[in-house]
Amino acid sequence: MERLRLVPLDDTVAFPSMTVTLPVDVGTDHRVFLVPRHGGDYASVGVVAEVVDRVRLPGGGRAVVLSGLHRGVAGAARNDPAGHLVVEVEAKPDETPPRSRTAELEREYRAVVLEILELRGDDGRVAAFLRSITEPGALADTSGYSPDLSFAQKVELLETLGVVERLELALRLQRERLAELQVRKRIRDDAESGAQKQQRDYILRRQLDSIRKELGEDETSVADEYRKKIADAGMPDAVREQAERELGRLERMGESSPESSMIRSYLDWLLAVPWAKRSEERLDPVHAREVLDADHAGLDDVKQRIVEYLAVRKLRAERGVPDDRRSGAILTLIGPPGTGKTSIGESIARATGRKFVRMSLGGVRDEAEIRGHRRTYIGALPGRLVRALRDGAAIHRRRSWRCSIRRRTMPSATTTSTSSSTSPTCCSSPPPTWPTPSPVRSSTAWR
After folding, report:
1. CA 20 to CA 309: how far, in whole Å?
2. Per-residue pLDDT reduced to its tens digit, 386-439
3. Which of 272, 201, 204, 232 lies closest to 264, judged by CA?
4. Intrachain domains 2-92 and 99-187 with the same fold
5. Distances, alpha carbon 29 to alpha carbons 10, 66, 168, 350, in Å
6. Is the CATH number of domain 2-92 2.170.150.40?
7. Check: CATH 1.20.58.1480 for 99-187?
8. Ramachandran angles phi, psi of 59, nearest 5°
9. What SS3 state is found at 409?
10. Which of 164, 180, 147 is nearest to 13 (CA)?
11. Which among 360, 386, 382, 385 has a CA at the least distance from the CA of 372?
12. What span, in angstroms and rounded, lies between the C-alpha atoms of 361 and 332?
């Protein structure tokens, strides 16, 4: 047992064969005991170090240069007459194990560390230092130089007295470090390749912008075209402000952004809605009755209710009664399939000079199909109402043409009602076994 002055190392670990310079005064001692300390806890194993040199610092302080010799286990401690802490140290120098037990570990340890040095961009000096070490214990202690190991890992390595066990521990720690460095390198390479791709895309976009400018098809012309269409669309103020706000976003992000296609699709739909287009409504009850009689036989109660509705609309317009939210009415046609509800709607549209759109909601289970999806969804589309507003004219012309052909080709059909009219109809009357359709339930059923 040897009594040595204890020199604590706060959050630092020194290993044998390691040279350190500490700003401490060890007096005339030639050897000291270096022990790692974290907070108030000391490690059980330290390093016996020899004083190599004593230096004086510029401020008047003293420092010593210490060189680690071997490990030591701390025993009983006490204060010397000068008040310094002295500890009994049991020397634990490395015992060289058989070569057969360490040869493979040394070879694998060197390979892992050399690969780490290659990833870190070593200039060859550290690799040469590693190759010069022949003792397995000293080779394992080189892990203490690694800045990637934590304080606890270095203390664990210091407290491992067996050379073989220490070499295995050092190999495991270096493997973990190598795996971490490989992951970092892969992430860095991916980031660099992504940055290179972005730079390449930027150059190509700049060239594409130059080509578009030469052709007069740059983004500015696209934005100006949208701005002109918005000004000519006759949108309400709230809709126009929203369209201009989206157009500003499109100008700022450019065509390269994946969101630009979504914004352009949204603007196209806003422009497709006929904001400033209104059909010229014809409020003529006599003409409406003539059209209804020409298109349908029977259904006198339905025709009478429609004519009454148009007459009220005409009187309100002649007397200058303004329309409000409660002034409108919704005509509801109730009946089994095939009784002529759709064709009556077409006749009303033709009699009043309005566009006719048929929107079937049978089987619709998602309300988003009617009111539209969120724009953030991939492949989002407006609802059926907005699409009907856009496609109203084309649908009206196509369905009117089909009805006119059916009126010419279908034979006359009689109805089961009490009406004696035998004029041609585009829809057959309900079979005798069906209940007679009753479109008019009450005065509130039409609102």
Report:
1. 103
2. 777 777 653 333 333 233 223 333 333 333 232 333 333 333 333 333 333 333
3. 272
4. no
5. 21, 12, 36, 116
6. no
7. yes
8. -80, 0
9. helix
10. 147
11. 382
12. 15
